[in-house]
């Protein structure tokens, strides 16, 4: 599963993005209203961003995703001191 998103950090405070995933179940048996437990599955460093770019596309490959399952992914935007804030989650049905 390849995740892509546009990233913009005008303040240049974000050093990395943690990627988290929650398994919502198999297609047809999703539990959208169930409490979601997110687990960290990766990290993308962003401090190397060129100073002349305000926005760029970032990506992460989830090699553990299984076809036929529905997942929710969320990004945690983190500063160097590990102070992180949650971005909106996206639900993906991996067919």
What can you see in these coordinates?
The protein has 95 residues and is mostly beta strands. The protein has a single domain, classed as Immunoglobulin-like, CATH 2.60.40. It is built from no helices and seven strands. Strands 2, 3, 5, 6 and 7 form a five-stranded antiparallel β-sheet that branches. The model has no long low-confidence stretch (mean pLDDT 82).
Short summary of the structure?
The protein has 95 residues and is mainly β. Helix content is 0%, strand content 55%.
Question: Could you report the average pLDDT, rounded to the nearest whole number?
Answer: 82
The secondary structure category is: mainly beta
How many domain units?
A: 1
- Tell me about the largest β-sheet: 5 strands, antiparallel
What's the CATH architecture name?
Sandwich
Radius of gyration, in Å, reads 15 Å
How do the helices and strands line up, and which of them pair or pack?
Layout: E1 2-8, E2 14-26, E3 39-45, E4 55-61, E5 69-79, E6 84-86, E7 90-93
Antiparallel strand pairs: 1-4, 2-3, 2-5, 5-6, 5-7
Give structural attributes.
single chain; 95 residues; mainly beta; Immunoglobulin-like; 5-stranded antiparallel β-sheet; two-stranded antiparallel ribbon
């Amino acid at each position: 599963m390849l995740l892509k998103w546009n990233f913009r950090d005008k303040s240049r405070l974000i050093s990395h993005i943690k990627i988290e995933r929650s398994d919502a179940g198999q297609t047809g048996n999703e539990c959208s209203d169930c409490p979601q437990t997110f687990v960290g599955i990766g990290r993308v460093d962003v401090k190397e961003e060129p100073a002349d770019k305000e926005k760029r596309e970032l990506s992460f490959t989830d090699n553990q995703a299984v076809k036929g399952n529905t997942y929710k992914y969320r990004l945690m935007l983190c500063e160097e001191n590990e102070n992180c804030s949650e971005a909106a989650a996206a639900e993906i049905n991996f067919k």
